[in-house]
């Protein structure tokens, strides 16, 4: 059996596995897709101490660093069930069952898609999801934000400071964001808010050229010409498979304490799948390290 078994091979899982292995304990890592969301990222400019890199390059560096240690890497394996008996038993999609004294869940999250034509085709070519990451790429350009909740309005405020103009598209007749954010948004000169509109299509071939939306009251179709679209309709944690195993919040994020411990003794979690305030590479790595140190502390006490 393992001392520490990490589930998920993104920045959080890689960091957790390295921190665990450095304690000289038996460590394994199971990942459906080693690298995680980083693989879907083009330029990364906010991973402090690395001025600029690209997602696939960082993913490769993560894997090389992990493989530098005595860690069992089980890539292309999806976990489907976790149970605690005398030890944790992790069942994989392929039927194998792995045993471990502690487990660290770092299965990350995925952005909620708007599911309109053009979204998939133009991902990373004008369709973006992370204003902290990609905002600066749209300096001086016209962009749209889809979603009028807190994350959408925060994104719009953020982008208004960088870009030429921001159009916010909200499906409902009213914005759902906190009033203070709405007030701040309304004070900005270069933002247009469209309410009660349904995004119909993101247009463009090599890059985004516009957004087509339907006015839900009149049924009329309109086109806005712009170069970037930020989809801000939520982040979904990859925790469905843990239903009933541990405590999660309303959004499905795993609730952890300051050492990454979940509601189940010996079970830890880190990265985008936990109830952290922000989701970034640097933050995931930090919480992965925390969870590994938490798991080590648990092992020496039990
Ligand atoms: P993830 O990266 O989501 O990794 C999750 C891992 O778990 C993957 O290996 C996945 O295959 C695996 N997994 C999931 N379910 C299972 C299962 N059931 N069984 C086994 N394995 C499973 N952040 C920045 O700091 N800077 C940026 O510039 C930046 N740009 C971004 C651009 C895009 C397009 C996206 C999508 C995100 C960006 N982010 C950026 C956010 C950053 O990528 C995430 O915060 C970070 O990857 C989270 O790391 P994680 O390890 O928690 O999860």
Task: Offer a few descriptive terms.
five-stranded parallel sheet; 23% helix; alpha/beta; single chain; elongated; 302 residues; 30% strand; binds flavin-adenine dinucleotide
Q: What's the SSE blueprint?
A:
Layout: E1 2-7, H1 11-21, E2 27-31, E3 43-44, E4 53-54, H2 55-67, E5 71-75, E6 79-84, E7 88-92, E8 97-105, E9 109-111, E10 127-128, H3 131-134, E11 142-146, H4 150-160, E12 165-169, H5 179-186, E13 191-194, E14 197-204, E15 208-215, E16 221-225, E17 228-231, E18 235-237, E19 267-269, H6 281-301
Parallel strand pairs: 1-2, 1-8, 2-5, 8-19, 10-17, 11-12, 11-17, 12-13
Antiparallel strand pairs: 3-4, 6-7, 7-8, 9-18, 14-15, 15-16
Helix pairs in contact: 1-2, 1-6, 4-5
The chain binds flavin-adenine dinucleotide.
Structural overview:
The protein is an alpha/beta fold. It has six helices and 19 strands. Strands 1, 2, 5, 6, 7, 8 and 19 form a seven-stranded mixed sheet that branches. A five-stranded parallel sheet has the order 10-17-11-12-13, with helices on one face. A hairpin with a 3-residue loop joins strand 14 (197-204) and strand 15. Helix 1 (11-21) packs parallel to helix 6 and helix 4 packs parallel to helix 5 (179-186). It is elongated. The chain starts with a strand and ends with a helix. Flavin-adenine dinucleotide binds at residues 7-13, 30-34, 36-38, 40-41, 44, 46, 78-79, 106-109, 111, 129-130, 133, 238, 241, 271-272, 279-282, 284.
């Amino acid at each position: 059996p393992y001392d520490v078994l990490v589930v998920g091979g993104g920045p959080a899982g890689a960091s957790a596995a390295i921190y665990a292995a450095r304690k000289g304990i038996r460590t394994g890592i199971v990942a459906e897709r080693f690298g995680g969301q980083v693989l879907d990222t083009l330029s990364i400019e906010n991973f402090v101490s690395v001025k600029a890199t690209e997602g696939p390059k960082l993913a490769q560096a993560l894997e090389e660093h992990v493989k530098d240690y005595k860690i069992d890497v089980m890539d292309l394996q999806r976990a489907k069930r976790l149970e605690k008996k005398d030890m944790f038993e992790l069942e994989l999609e392929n039927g194998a069952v792995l045993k471990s004294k502690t487990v660290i869940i770092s299965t990350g999250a995925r952005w909620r898609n708007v599911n309109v034509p053009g979204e998939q085709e133009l991902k990373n070519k004008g369709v973006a999801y992370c204003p902290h990451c990609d905002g600066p790429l749209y300096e001086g350009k016209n962009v749209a934000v889809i979603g009028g909740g807190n994350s959408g309005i925060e994104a719009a405020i953020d982008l208004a400071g960088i870009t030429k103009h921001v159009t916010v598209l909200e499906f409902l007749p009213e914005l759902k964001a906190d009033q203070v954010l709405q007030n701040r948004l309304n004070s900005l000169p270069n933002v247009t808010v469209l309410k009660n509109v349904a995004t119909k299509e993101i247009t463009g071939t090599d890059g985004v050229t516009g957004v087509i939306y339907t006015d839900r009251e009149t049924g009329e179709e309109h086109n806005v010409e712009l170069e970037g679209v930020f989809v801000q309709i939520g982040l979904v944690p990859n925790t469905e498979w843990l239903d009933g195993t541990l405590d999660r919040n309303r959004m499905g994020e795993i609730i952890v304490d300051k050492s990454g411990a979940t509601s189940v003794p010996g079970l830890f979690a880190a990265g985008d799948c936990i109830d952290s305030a922000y989701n970034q590479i640097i933050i995931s790595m930090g919480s992965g390290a925390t969870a590994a140190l938490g798991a080590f502390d648990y092992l020496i006490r039990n």
